Amino acid sequence: MTSDFLLSLAQAVTKGLLTGMVYGLMALGLSVIFGVMRVVNFAHGEIMVVGMYLAWMGFEYLQVSPMLSLPVIAALFFVAGYALQSTLISPFIGRPEHQQFLLLLAVAILLVNGCLAIAGPDSRSVQMDSQFDSYELGPLVFDAVRLHAALAAVAIAGLLWLFFTRTRTGKSIRAAADNNMGALVVGLDVRRLYAFTFGVGAACVGAAGALMITIIPVTPFLAAEYTLLAFVIVIVGGLGSMTGALMGGLLIGVSEAVAGLLLQPSLKSMVSFGILILVLLLRPQGLFGKSGT
Amino acid sequence: MSGARLELAGVGKNFRGLRAVHDVSFSVPAGAIHALIGPNGAGKTTIFNMIAGVYVPDAGAVTLDGRKISGLRPDRVCDAGVGRTFQIVKPFKGLSVLENVTVGALHQRPDLTEARDAAASLLAQLGLHDRRHQLAENLTLPDRKKLEVARALATGPRLLLLDEVMAGLRPTEIDVMVAFLRDLNARTGLTILLIEHVMRAVMALAREVVVVSYGEKIAEGTPQEISRHQAVLDVYLGEQEAS
Amino acid sequence: MKFGRRLTDGVPSRALWGLGVLLLALLVAPALLGKYGLSVLILVLYFAFVGQAWNIMMGFAGQLSLGHALYAGLGGYVAAGLFFHYGLGPWAGVFVAVAAAAAAGAIVGYLGFRFSLAGVYFALLTIAFSEFTRLAFDHWEWAGGSGGLFLKVDATVDVWNLRGGPLLFYYLILALAVGAFILCRALLESRLGRYWLAIREDAEAAQAVGVPVLRCKMIAVVISASLTALAGVWNAFYYNNLFPETAFAMGRSIEITLAPIIGGLGTLFGPVVGAVVLTGLGEAFTDASEYFHIPGMKQIFYGLALLVIVIYRPAGVWPWLADKLGIGERRP
């Protein structure tokens, strides 16, 4: 009895960790954008859902695996994010929060209803060849699809880490995130940097979308939920902190999976929101955020 | 309305282990004008913030007419009779000049019309009357400084803390402000403590000067005494050479 | 009378006449409008009312709440639940409903303000509480769970139990909207109102001139939540059904914020003008999109309209409109 329970608990934690890695990648995009521009991307989940749909279309109409269309989607999203920032969002940097909120809300409405208009309200999923494969490690079973998605998410996060630590642009973005006045003083081209950052953020979440569609079917109505989920993760991890976003993703992934096991599955987000409230009140800088910033 | 006596006894404050202010004691008698001077980063504004209730001192106490005010919230300190200006001015940008001062005047007059009248008369005294319907965000820096003073005065304080209100003013404007403060002090007996870099204003206004450096009081005396004080000269000449 | 003079002090007589004519027109409107027209006007008044309520918190006191569905939902559920389970009429139940929402507002506000969460962080806290409550109601049997709570639809008009047709609800929401308008004007022209504006502009400077910041913010949340709860009660009895998925939805919270943001934050007419614009656009787009037969078309139009408004009139439609008409609402 207890060993059965422990096993299913371990199984749930494993599943949560794997999903959490994809969550982390999604949240990373939000965190990067906020960290640098202090703009809260209220269209984040919507952007991800667009990524999910693109990956689904590639699979459905061109028979391309989401894993293969991922780089293309990420590149497209980078360009789109760059363009979105340099045209629409740029004038709103430094404006009152409610104006940024309204702008991104309008973008979100357009994106999600664009998906609805093109793909309809039905739930769409990708049936991969490896759909029912699994790996076993001792008594634990890993879904192949979920494992692949998680590994890909980790790999992309690793690439991002290299980008942020090894390249000049990446270092400038980090500098801007740490101290946006500092970047101004050093004389970086802030507008270009912002556009680049939004591009990177959008590419992250687009890639996360391509991975997510292999795990979960997509509907337009998921978008708002993902926006909220991304908020929960980055606040818990620490808004603006990249490690925080990844660790927050893992934490929320695990808490959802465990809550789904111990309570009712429909209560899983209640636990996430509970965690969010506690973190906001007790450690608003997030579990991995620097204090005093 | 008359002035109150301010006393700081062994006041200290640390930020994350960094000693910002250490064991500072001085007093300003009721109705006097004193100045607090020192190089940048000496802890002057920290001392103001401890008097005004923004920071709670880690050591010592601040009293106003013998009543302890350190540890009170800023609005309670205002209730106790302390008005303050901010070094980096903080106007209510989206409100008109008149309404900025009205907010201060409401502190003692709950009625909006009465408060507005009191505010208008203060603005006239400070030469901002013509601009009373402008939005505060459209004021020039010197006018914003005057607005800070008007708003703080509107609360009817017995002690006024002025944080570098002369900075950015032209010499003629400094003379006008000095004349205004001196007249105000003579008429009402309001106690004034000012942080000031403009020595011309310090010399003209202050009966006594307290000098702080690296968070500690290094000298105290009349402006004449201070200008001959060796430690002060060292600190200031050092700074001037550096800057 | 002194109170009345205070309210109209400094308002040009032209504007007062205009308001009088508008009120008169709204009073006789049901006689002139068809069923459809009345339903649209009801929507306008509803959004004007909740917008006014939300505006107290954001437009006046500068606290961004994106979780106002919490107060509307609680208000609606408490009044409807008491009526459904115990037959307690809404005129009595509304007091409990408002008290519940005010308490919720006080809790969210106190936690947020006490721990000095500002801007986006505070907004996320309000969202979190609203979502948390939505999920809790999903699993709460008394409130009908995710299956919803239904009030019996009755053809007979029974004012004491808020049973009746659109006309009853029209006059109710009109009274609420007018009441909120007058209340907001009175608040704005009071010491409290000026303190709110000061806090909105700069809380630290406000506190330095003696404004008890925490207390003022708390009063703003409690008033705002209470008014929003009234809208929730009205909503529950007008539509006769409640679902956690809609009553506490993030979309409901956002809907509440739109009229004042689009109309002009912190102004009295902003929520009203915003409600007219939004409802008007919504109805126009419903008609237009029927032509296309594409799902989501209406929302796409709506999103485009929001985009255009926020790009070209970021401070809202009303301040610009008032300037054009030469009846600028005097800035405090």
SSE arrangement:
The complex is a heterotrimer of chains A (293), B (243) and C (332).
Chain A: H1 2-37, H2 44-62, H3 66-89, H4 97-119, E1 134-137, E2 140-143, H5 144-166, H6 168-178, H7 180-186, H8 190-215, H9 222-237, H10 242-262, H11 268-282
Helix pairs in contact in A: 1-5, 1-6, 1-8, 1-9, 1-10, 2-3, 2-4, 2-8, 2-9, 3-8, 5-6, 5-8, 6-7, 9-10, 9-11, 10-11
Chain B: E1 6-15, E2 18-28, E3 33-37, H1 44-52, E4 59-64, E5 67-68, H2 74-80, E6 82-84, H3 97-105, H4 112-125, H5 141-154, E7 159-163, H6 171-188, E8 191-195, H7 199-205, E9 208-213, E10 216-221, H8 223-228, H9 230-242
Parallel strand pairs in B: 3-8, 3-9, 6-7, 7-8
Antiparallel strand pairs in B: 1-2, 1-4, 4-5, 9-10
Helix pairs in contact in B: 3-4, 3-5, 4-5
Chain C: H1 2-8, H2 13-32, H3 35-60, H4 69-86, H5 90-114, H6 119-138, E1 149-150, H7 166-188, H8 191-201, H9 203-208, H10 213-239, E2 241-242, H11 244-247, H12 250-263, H13 270-290, H14 297-312, H15 317-325
Antiparallel strand pairs in C: 1-2
Name the features:
heterotrimer; A: 293 residues; two-stranded antiparallel ribbon; 11 helices; 3% strand; globular; B: 243 residues; alpha/beta; Rossmann fold; six-stranded mixed sheet
Distance between the termini of chain B: 42 Å
Which overall shape of chain B is indicated by the principal axes computed on the Cα atoms?
A: globular
Query: For the record, what is the CATH homologous superfamily label of chain B?
Result: P-loop containing nucleotide triphosphate hydrolases
Secondary structure category of chain A: mainly alpha
Description:
The complex is a heterotrimer of chains A (293), B (243) and C (332). With 293 residues, chain A is an all-alpha fold. Chain A is 75% helix and 3% strand. In chain A, strands 1-2 form a two-stranded antiparallel ribbon. In chain A, a hairpin with a 2-residue loop joins β1 and β2 (140-143). In chain A, α1 packs antiparallel against α10 and α5 (144-166) packs across α6. The longest helix of chain A is centred in the first third of the chain and has 36 residues, at 2-37. The N and C termini of chain A lie far apart (48 Å). The mean pLDDT of chain A is 86. Helices cover 40% and strands 24% of the residues of chain B. Chain B is built from 9 helices and 10 strands. In chain B, the strands form 2 sheets. Chain B has a 6-stranded mixed β-sheet, with helices on both faces. A 4-stranded antiparallel β-sheet of chain B has the order 2-1-4-5, with helices on one face. In chain B, α3 (97-105) crosses α4 (112-125), α3 (97-105) packs parallel to α5 (141-154) and α4 packs across α5 (141-154). Chain B starts with 5 loop residues before the first strand and ends with a helix. The model of chain B has no long low-confidence stretch (mean pLDDT 91). Chain C is an all-alpha fold. Chain C has a domain at 35-249. Helices cover 74% and strands 1% of the residues of chain C. Chain C has 15 helices and 2 strands. Chain C has helices at 2-8, 13-32, 35-60, 69-86, 90-114, 119-138, 166-188, 191-201, 203-208, 213-239, 244-247, 250-263, 270-290, 297-312, 317-325; strands at 149-150, 241-242. Chain C has a two-stranded antiparallel ribbon with strand order 1-2. The mean pLDDT of chain C is 89. Chain A binds chain C through residues 40, 88, 91, 95, 97-99, 101-103, 105-110, 112-117, 120-121, 220, 224, 228, 231-232, 235, 264, 266-267, 269-270, 273-274, 276-277, 280-282, 284, and chain C through 58, 64, 66, 111, 115, 117, 119-121, 123-125, 127-129, 131-132, 135-136, 138-139, 146, 250-251, 254, 257-258, 261-262, 265, 294-297, 299-300, 302-304, 306-307, 310-311, 314.
